[in-house]
Hints:
By secondary structure, the protein is α+β, with helices and mostly antiparallel strands.
Amino acid sequence: xxFKEIREKFIKFFExxxxxxxxxxxxxxxxxxxxxxxxxxxQFKPYWGELDPEQTIHPSIGKPVGKNAVxxxxxxxxxDIDEVxxxxxxxxxxxxxxxxxxxxxKKEAIAYAHEFLTKELGLKxxxxxxxxxxxxxxxxxxxxxxxxxxxxxxxxxxxxxGMENVFWGPTGASGPCGPTTEVYFKNAQGQDIETWNxxxxxxxxxxxxxxxxxxxxxxxxxxxxxxxxxxxxxxERIAMIVQEKKNIFETxxxxxxxxxxxEIQGDKPIQQIRLIADHLRAVTFLIADGLExxxxxxxxxxxxxxxxxxTAHYLYIGAGIDINFCVDPVNTIIDIYRKDYxxxxxxxxxxxxxxxxxxxxxxxxxxxxxxxLDLKKQxxxxxxxxxxxxxxxxxxxxxxxxxILFDIRQxxxxxxxxxxxxxxxxxxxxxxxxxxxxxxxxxxxxxxxRAGQERKFGGHGLLLDTGELKAANEEELKKVTRLHxxxxxxxxxxxxxxxxxxxxxxxxxTVERLRxxxxxxxxxxxxxxxxxxxxxxxxxxxxxxxxxxEMPIEDAKNSGALTVATAKYPPMVKVYSxxxxxREVCGGPHVSRTSEVGEFKIIKxxxxxxxxxxxxxxxxx
Length: 621
């Protein structure tokens, strides 16, 4: 069974059982407490206690989800990034999940999982886990799940585990959470692999998962009024089990990508081939969702991935560096996913261009590192203050300086594991002294970074940081305020020109530009974009007042003020209106009259994800 057939079976199975299929949301979440989308439940978080799933229009499908949903969500986790290259770890993956917001609970969820795995996929379960309970947290042992499994299969093996293993969530700074039951299968090597995790959201925790596990003072689990189900099964892992492969990289999903990498790299160490395949796949989707390589915390992720892949390429390609090493693998990746994510085709050239530009720049850095680590050099200047210590060729151990190695690694932006391989390739040995010096430099850097974060969020850093807008000084504040008001006007113009099915799905504003994501099923034509731009400009030239009114959130909605479906609003909100043109609930800064926005210009329109479009625009004096 191919991975595409598994995808199709999963969606159709749950649709037959009364679930609404919902497309994957973007890898760039609306939730400011997380860098990237890490699980299928993130787009559904508001349905546990905040929004009514039977009344709230879900923007990507144009109707309410209802009490039960199914999705296959693009996901990315940085926690395993240093493990990629082994047989099971990935950065980007697809999470298959079914969800219930009061429609059903443990009995039905476990029965669905058992039926899909054993009947639809024809698999034999190795064993399952259930929560052993935690008296201190007031959470009892999950005897109910164990009994349900036994009823379905009297011979099934059940293991009890604790809070760290089988109690999931919350995701981000707070959210729903609860005990889980996990399903294990044996792979082709006879190893037990955890494949499907069924989470029973019975509680809400007003803090992070780390705070929960450490019993943070003043924070307690609260019972949810309506418990729900949140499940997650990695497509790559279940494909490995179904196809009876020894690891995820032997599946029909990864095999063509590995082949494309090997055709360029040659038959080099498999760990590096896997790393390149994983990182290029992840970067393809991150860039397609609008995240370009850069120095900001979130933008640094694709930069790190590209540089690690490039370093692996540099280590094993032999003489020279091919900056086009990414092209064939990325084309293969897009061809594999083009049916499920057609917007990748539209962005093919852009994705390759961005990766090629980043690799071209980094290839120069790698060549520099090769020169710095050349055994023939006796003294090499790293900066105006530091000199490379004497290095001796022959049989002597090279006496490197761990502090300088850390400085180099920071300056080029690669992982320490990749840096070590570059060093070892150049013939150096890393002794205890060097490693100790490196660790000390790393710890000092962490301390300085923490101090910087404390200053930043203690009111001495950014003048404004709402997650959507950031400004470091008064000038930047004026610019982002103009862009923020322009974003409201852009949405109003889109709804007037393209129709009332337009809803906001995300917004990001920097000093240079605004970025606005919205629901729309097709590419916006150049003529339509010109109409939208002209309408915004006309409203700017009319010098209309921007009025602010405070009212209860329900009154605001009843008045026609637009809201963001996934946002959580306080009881009293601010409503900003521009004549009868624009009316939105918002807490950000705005200009007093539209003429202050300045000249508005759309610079780009593109797909963000399935059913979601993205516009970038600028304003000038």
